[in-house]
């Protein structure tokens, strides 16, 4: 893997780690324009009481404070989990250049798992997607989150007997679009 | 225009609320696969099942419960009879067992079934099909390839009298449960006996019929009003130049007055908790003036609305649906005026402000007890039947959630309520408010796919938009509107069509139909409805206008 990609995905993972610390679903991302991070975000749905405040939206909001949206055409996204259907469509509307993600998202994934919004017919140009960068690290973040109980849910499900799984299957489910060695 | 004047002027749309069909309904998967059939001693049938289930455990993710495991002689489809019944056993002697995928190795299967071979023939029969039936055989063509395959793949032992060896025939079977009794009958007569279960597969295919019709009946009386208001909000957004002409109205069905409560004092707007208009031209990016400011300071509709240029489109978080969600969230969070979030996502329109302020006013009935304990509130809450949730949760979980809400409220009431703590129209986090749980959203247009997923993630109960508001870029419809093609249409207005742009036409024909409201793969579901205006056959659909994301 190109060390540049590794560096930016690590930054996304750090954002995910921060999300976990604050009780948010641990997904983090950074927006990179000309080798420089111009926006970063982590999930904010619990704190904001707004189910649409995903990491990608936070990062874009931050970027647009200092840059016009047309810059997104030459900007790449590094995100720990495959963008969901909502974010995959938003990224298309914002005309992002390339998306690099960690693990697939077989519940909501919008760039290959459930839908392929990056490449489907649309009124906006398609974007390129690469999956599988630090996939195991991204999955471990999610596992550490999901063994906790969700105190924000109206009726938390008890999870007393869950154990943290640390093994991985060799396949990369939900990332057909992936090319793990980039 | 004054808000009260706008509200008085809202004329309900006249028409009908129809459920949007799900992608599972409009694009049923017809998946077929090979399966083995073996003729076994009818007296050993239960042992056959035991032996098969212990040797080849079934794939629980594909239970295949719709396929009968056994078929009696008279249940064998006509086209399979020449192959399956040619051994000439009596119906009292043998029965046919189905071994569907994952297919075991034929040798292993034959060894396993060896103890259950048919008994010696009692009376050798001629071929069961009378000669007169033969001419009809070629016409029963559906599984003909399967029949041919069966002939080819039967083991060499078929030529010998089958007394000591099990013969495996390969047939083709449907892998998905039938959606209708007709489909079940069709498959049963052509492929293999199939069972139709009206309850089991349905929830993954479409909303359960009784829930769908109950919600439709509940929303139908006022849907025309709410949609007309959504259009009024849209008009305000367009007029201002701050957004495109798209509007959203969020309704809490729990706040709908019951028939007895419907008095002169109550207004048709009582159950509305928020409205929002599109605001895509309102945002400043990178320190530059917003598109609306560049275009002339918000006086009159934006010049950008006649075309689609991504650079002027703001982003989906400025769409009406997303703005409505954020307004609800700000109430749940109890944002202080002038907070950072309010600066980033400001309230833009008079109608929005009106309903936001209205949501500060405590509910009727709660006013009298504010600050005076909570006994009355408690009683009113207890009198209201627990509303239902139709999403992923089960019936019992749904009730538990609402009981939980009530407990929280009661606790709040017992603690003395506090300022605004009793019965607000939008519950705060402390009062058990959660995302957009159990709310309905009425939209002037079919939302873009981003907003569709946003409304699912926000846990709305239902989404309703006018069929005329369908969008090329929409994410809810799962099929085109089928209507007769007018022969001479358009011939007298070629100039107008030209003005609307040429590229849209092509995209209309090729639009995607995602049907996101009840897509089985997604964790969250909402009930989707279209409002079909009375006499709707001609008139412009938003699909043929400028293509943009609503």
UniProtKB/TrEMBL annotation, chain A:
The keyword DNA-binding does not apply. GO terms for cellular component: cytoplasm; nucleus; tRNA-specific adenosine-34 deaminase complex. PROSITE patterns: CYT_DCMP_DEAMINASES_1, CYT_DCMP_DEAMINASES_2. It catalyses: adenosine(34) in tRNA + H2O + H(+) = inosine(34) in tRNA + NH4(+). Its cofactor is Zn(2+). Residues 3-122 form the CMP/dCMP-type deaminase domain. Residues 152-182 are annotated as: Disordered. Belongs to the cytidine and deoxycytidylate deaminase family. ADAT2 subfamily. PANTHER family: CYTOSINE DEAMINASE FAMILY MEMBER, TRNA-SPECIFIC ADENOSINE DEAMINASE 2. This is tRNA(adenine(34)) deaminase.
UniProtKB/TrEMBL annotation, chain B:
One of its GO terms (biological process) is nucleobase-containing compound metabolic process. Residues 130-161 have a biased composition (Low complexity). Residues 120-161, 280-314, 485-508 are annotated as: Disordered. SUPFAM superfamilies: Cytidine deaminase-like. Residues 120-129 have a biased composition (Pro residues). It comes from the Eukaryota. Signal peptide: none annotated. GO terms for molecular function: catalytic activity. This is tRNA-specific adenosine-34 deaminase subunit Tad3. It comes from Aspergillus violaceofuscus (strain CBS 115571).
